[in-house]
Specification:
single chain, 2 helices
Length: 45
């Protein structure tokens, strides 16, 4: 079950800038979900 990691994939994993942007993107997505009244029963008009 071992598969080779390509140089590009290793570069992506090791690159802190890309990691940071991925983290930011996920945080913003979560913020939008939470701010959008996710799981709330009342709808604010």
């Amino acid at each position: 079950m071992t598969h080779r990691i390509t140089k590009y994939q290793r570069f992506k994993m090791k690159n802190p800038i890309l990691q940071f942007f991925k983290f930011l993107y996920l945080s913003i997505k979560i913020l939008f979900v939470v701010a959008g009244g996710h799981g709330g029963t009342r709808k604010a008009n």
